[in-house]
Design brief:
- The complex is a heterodimer of chains A (106) and B (85).
- Chain A has 5 helices and 4 strands; from the N terminus they run H-E-H-E-H-E-E-H-H.
- Chain A is α+β, with helices and mostly antiparallel strands and 106 residues long.
- Chain A has a 4-stranded mixed sheet with strand order 2-1-3-4, with helices on both faces.
- In chain A, helix 2 links the parallel strand 1 and strand 2.
- Chain B is of the alpha+beta class and 85 residues long.
- Chain B contains 4 helices and 3 strands; from the N terminus they run H-E-E-H-H-E-H.
- A 3-stranded mixed sheet of chain B has the order 1-2-3.
- The N and C termini of chain B lie far apart (30 Å).
- Classes of the chains: A alpha+beta (106), B alpha+beta (85).
- The interface between A and B is medium-sized, with 14 and 11 residues.
Amino acid sequence: MTPELKARFDQITQSHPIVLFMKGNALFPQCGFSARALSLLQPHGEVFTVDVLADPEVRQGIKDYTNWPTIPQIFIRGQFIGGSDILTELAERGELADLVAGKSPA
Amino acid sequence: MLDTDFIRSRILEALPGSEVEVRDTTGTGDHFEARVVSPDFAGKAMVQQHQLVYAPLQTWLKTGELHALALKTYSPEQWKKLGNR
């Protein structure tokens, strides 16, 4: 990955409390997992979304950045949280709100 | 085709002392789900817990022999608090 791309990911993930790399955008999710991730996150605050379909470099780059093979990918308070399975599990355990509030170590 | 014992053994080798339960979700030997309770998970974010379980299975995930592995991971403390659901 180019240093420019890495810097871009650093910048995006650190400038918003909730960041979702997804297929499509908030109005038109292009994948069920992305749509579900979005709906799980939205109750917890504003979700900054990045459409990976808009840029092949970002689509592959984010996977290299996190060493995680699938989209969507979720960042909360600058920290990589995982994909939609982990997000679902965290929501079921009631831990999402605390994560967003910075109250737990994830 | 993989089986639940194989998956379980690989996870146990990587995370000795853990409690591992594996289910073949489709009966086709390539989609599994696992519940892992491991002392190694204490204080780790869920994504790190999952990475620890995926690590010993990378080879088979890469070839696609293992197509999907859905995970539930808990430290013993988390399991005590949230378990038996």
